[in-house]
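Deliverable D5.2: sample structural annotation.
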Amino acid sequence: AERKAKEEAERKAKEELDRKARDEAEGKRKAQAEAERKAREEAERVARDERERKAKAQAEGADKVAQMARAFRESREEAKRKVKEEADKKAQAEAAKVQQAQQAEAEKKEKEDAVRREKEEAKER
């Protein structure tokens, strides 16, 4: 009976040790799985942040390109407008010169006609 009690005690002690070893192994396995899950989540977060940063940088780059294109287009339109204004001014100045010359010619002809009429009237008298 004593030997049986001793064997029973040893068996229980061995089962207890086995149970503790299993529990410890299970705890380690769970801790390892948790550590892996956290590492995976962190890697996903870092990758997501990097994608967002790249997308933002790309969008900013596209905005800069669009802004530069707009500025170029506006400066080109401004240059065209200035050239057109300059051409309009020259055309107006040329038209004014022509009009002035025509007016001077008309006045000269009018004076000549007046002088001719005077002479004719003087001859008639």
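Annotation notes: The first helix runs from residue 2 to 124. Residues 1-93 form one domain.
The annotation will be released with the project's public dataset once the embargo ends.
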